[in-house]
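Justification of computing resources. Each target in the renewal requires a structure prediction run like the one illustrated here; the chain below, 168 residues long, is used simply to show the kind of job we budget for.
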Amino acid sequence: MHALPMGKIDTSNTRHGLDMTSVGRPTRYKQEYAEQALKLCRLGAKDSELADFFQVSEQTINAWKNAHPEFLESLKGGKGLADAEVADRLFKRATGYEHQAVKISATPDGREHVTEYIERYPPDTTAAIFWLKNRRPDLWRDKVEQAHSGEVKHTVNKIELVPMIRDN
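Resulting structure tokens:
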């Protein structure tokens, strides 16, 4: 470290090898965090879980989103992909689907026997209701309409207050 002559101000913006142009503590962000965040978001991680993983606060995660565009894009991409996959699975469950499957069994003489077949899943009513309530709440939400029939009468009784006089 070099000492400055008396009365001189350090304007180099570096101190101890660190860039001093930004205010505050140096960031803990590393370039590899974008890839790690992408993978975690594909697994369904929320911002609070990312903060736990990276051992920082949620405020820091939000700051990284603002300061590092690649980190923000990783979060958006991972969360979007995970949500799309779940939506696809829910749709298939709601409408029914089929897929190729294999059954492996043993023959009487102990040899392996492979049988290919098509596994079919019928539509699931609960999944269909969930899908419709979330996709078209204007048509499918649970709403209770209360209609009043008949007359409503209001009666107001007039009461006169007479001051009481006390004899002393």
